[in-house]
Prior knowledge:
Organism: Acinetobacter baumannii MRSN 3527
Keywords: Endonuclease, Hydrolase, Nuclease
Number of strands: 4
GO molecular function: DNA binding; endonuclease activity; transposase activity
GO biological process, one term: DNA transposition
Low-confidence stretches: none
Protein name: DDE family endonuclease domain protein
Amino acid sequence: MARRKAHTFKVKAIIHYKTQKILSLCTSRGAVHDFELFKRNLNQIHVGVFILADKGYQRIYTVYPNSLLPLKAKKQKSKKAKKQKSKKAKKQKSKKAL
């Protein structure tokens, strides 16, 4: 039988990126997702504050529109890289054919 952690305590701090001043401090007992903790303590965040969040806050726009998430990385290579790769492959095929 696997043992589970008996006590968990989550603390989330929102700080100003330039002054490093703490804008909001949220705590919760137990395993709570970061975004759920954010929604519970939304009233502590000042109106008009711009929030830069990580990918754990995927639906933050619906709750707090003045926010930004990092962009997803492109899974496919750029068109130029694909064209160059296909040109090299064509050249190699033509050399083998001769």
